[in-house]
């Protein structure tokens, strides 16, 4: 049991290190109170996204492929679109806080879930063989560990994101930083998943 818990913890940390950056940015923006994005939406969206990733991985481990691997990367279009929208508004020179953060206003719970799924799309390829080789008991323990550690992940990101120095620094660059983070995330997902290469091969 202890070895299963330790392995699950290591797997979670290894596959979610990049997620902490996105989470921190989201919590930092929510902490300022100028966006409609709320902390509970970030946490709930993360859980919804992680549960979806686990469910898809579990089904894939049973031999049921819902979406071909090469198309999972298309989920990267979600953060990419949010980032581009925010960047366009920034380039237009709109300094109004409500308008400048309008890209994040549309995120909400489902948007956060979508970003979580997109950012964790490659996790499916890792979780699937792990679940396939586990007993039902070990798989359930692993899932519980994932859900518990996600709470700690959110707490860590919230602690960093709501730090006074962090929020003060973010206030100066957020009009650029937030769109850039999401655009970078979207592009990374599209490239890392091999989706762009697959599309190019079809053209």
From TrEMBL:
Give the residue spans that cross the bilayer. 6-30, 42-65, 71-91, 103-127, 139-156, 176-200
Pfam families, from UniProt?
A: Cad
* Domain of life of the native organism: Bacteria
- Kindly indicate where the leader peptide sits in this chain: none
Q: Any keyword Disulfide bond?
A: no
Q: Which UniProt keywords apply?
A: Membrane, Transmembrane, Transmembrane helix
InterPro entries, from UniProt? Cd-R_transporter
Q: What is this protein called?
A: Cadmium resistance transporter
């Amino acid at each position: 049991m202890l070895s299963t818990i330790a392995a699950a913890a290591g797997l979670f940390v290894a596959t979610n290190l990049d997620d902490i950056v996105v989470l921190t940015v989201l919590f930092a923006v929510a902490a300022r109170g100028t966006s409609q994005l709320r902390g509970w939406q970030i946490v709930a969206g993360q859980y919804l996204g992680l549960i979806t990733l686990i469910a898809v991985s579990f089904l894939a481990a049973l031999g049921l492929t819902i979406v071909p691997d090469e198309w999972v990367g298309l989920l990267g279009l979600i953060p990419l679109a949010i980032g581009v929208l925010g960047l366009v508004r920034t380039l237009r020179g709109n300094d109004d806080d409500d308008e400048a953060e309008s890209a994040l206003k549309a995120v909400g719970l489902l948007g956060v879930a979508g970003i979580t799924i997109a950012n964790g799309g490659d996790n499916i390829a890792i979780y699937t063989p792990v679940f396939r080789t586990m007993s039902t008991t070990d798989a359930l323990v692993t899932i519980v560990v994932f859900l518990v550690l996600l709470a700690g992940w959110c707490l860590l990101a919230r602690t960093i994101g709501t730090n006074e120095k962090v929020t003060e620094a973010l206030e100066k660059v957020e009009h650029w930083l937030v769109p850039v983070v999401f655009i970078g995330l979207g592009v990374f997902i599209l490239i890392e998943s091999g989706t762009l290469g697959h599309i190019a091969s079809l053209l």
